[in-house]
Amino acid sequence: MKLIEGDPKLAGGTATERATPLRSYDLFIGGKDVPGDGWVYTTSAASLLEDVFTSISLKRALEKDPDDAASQHRYVVGRCAVATTAHIDESLQAAADAAREWARVPLERRLRLGQLFRETLQANQDEFLELLVAESHPVKLARWELSCLYQLYGQESVNWYAEQMHKEFIHGNRRLIVRRQPDGVVCFNPPQNAAGPSAALAVLPLMAGNAVVVRAPRSIPLSTMYLCRELIAPLLEEVGAPPGVLNALCSNPKQTTDRWIESPLVNDIFFVGGSEEGLKLQERCIANGKKPILELAGNDSIVVWKDADLDAAVEAILECFYGSGQICMVPNCVVVHPDVADELIAKIKEQIVDVKPGYPDQEDVLLSPVRRAEKFFALQKQALELGAELISGGGRMEVDGTPSDTGVFLQPTVLRVNGLATSRETDMVKHETFFPLLPVIVPEAATDLELLDGFIEFVNTNDYGLRNSLWAKSEEVIDQFVQRIVNGGLLKVNDSHIGFLPYLPSHGGTGLTGGVFGEANYPMLKTSHVQGVSVATGIRPRQAVFDGA
């Protein structure tokens, strides 16, 4: 990383002039910093809330002239070099050259990356959080994102990965091995809404023995380049990885994925994004002999049974609004037993006031700005026309929570939908909405057995399949859910919907969430393949064939 120093006279900073050096990242290819073709600039989240016109003007001025005095403005956080097609091809060749050598490194040494990365992340947590806040992550949610990484790279999880990657058995005069071997070159496309924390998943394919190319999204590249260049790359040197095992570049999405798909050097494409785009990419990957690893949209359900701890359930339900619903793994709808529906809705309405907008560095802020909200209002309109009832919210608001027709925040919005069988006639129930919009579905009165069957059928027939939750005390109800829910990569019972745990997957799912190969996503396992080995002593082949027959 380069630090571009400003005028020493500006060290104290003013209302417009920055007081710290500007972060500057070249492309990282083959273990070297490589100049790109121009720059993209990151301006702080505060600029979007205080003066969006100045924020846009600064970026445009700097992209035309990197030496413009605008680089010293306090809104400008950093810049990343932009890759050309030639750079993309160079990164793939560097990865392919390194992959064979890295795959030969013993698994034990590669697994050290997990512990080292966790320790490095902890040591640099404040700096990483600062960048995430600058990229509009509320600090409270940024800490939650880091909690995912601490679980993924915790000792319990790393030990479990080791067991899955290599297992040996003694069978008579044979040593039998079931192991996973790396796929080769893995190209990783993180999402725009959480690029840096998602890019940290790339350490897992590296631990599996793959070489990795990470694309930092042009709209939000800074935290991704920081993570790859300053945290992960030095660790690879420490464990003796060859140059080119990790490559990171900021580039155009279509230009990059086209090159990845066309290149004979690429084995896997790990894509995080929308379902429609991801499923089209899946088809192209298969046609070109690549393994598609998809982490797409979620449309998660929370089911609340009549004996549930409603106060605790409401805490989990309100996770729907975290980040203004712009997190794939937050719950998107609630299905509640009709006996407790009114009480649950009243508690939601009472506690929703704690979900607040504000600047992302404020500790109590859980909402993020939403720029394009036309669909939010269209979804509400359709639902109301189909008979839904508005319980809370429904409009825009300013950064201080004041209702406003021009505010950049959306109010946490709750609608009651009567009838389970017809609920998916509304798009806000049928599809992921990515807004702070929560339908609470109240089924028609029926026997408990009929309701339980209906709830399970509703969850299992969801076109998406990321996470599902149940709140209930009845052991019978819990057992039925655990046995019969087949949809989704994760089922949580009486727990936070979005919380992370060791051993269990943090991502992955079925249907429109993971594509035709969708399941719980363990990136170490997804970017490797199973291989069986037999090492025999004193075995006669003819005897081995016919004695068994």
TrEMBL record:
Classification via InterPro entries: Ald_DH/histidinol_DH, Ald_DH_C, Ald_DH_N, Aldehyde_DH_dom, Aldehyde_DH_Superfamily
What keywords were assigned to this record?
Oxidoreductase
Its domain of life? Bacteria
Query: Quick check: keyword Cell wall biogenesis/degradation in the entry?
Result: no
Q: Which SUPFAM superfamilies match?
A: ALDH-like
Domain Aldehyde dehydrogenase, which positions? 74-514
Membrane-traversing stretches: none
The answer on whether this UniProt entry bears the keyword Nucleotidyltransferase reads: no
* UniProt-recorded name of the protein: Aldehyde dehydrogenase family protein
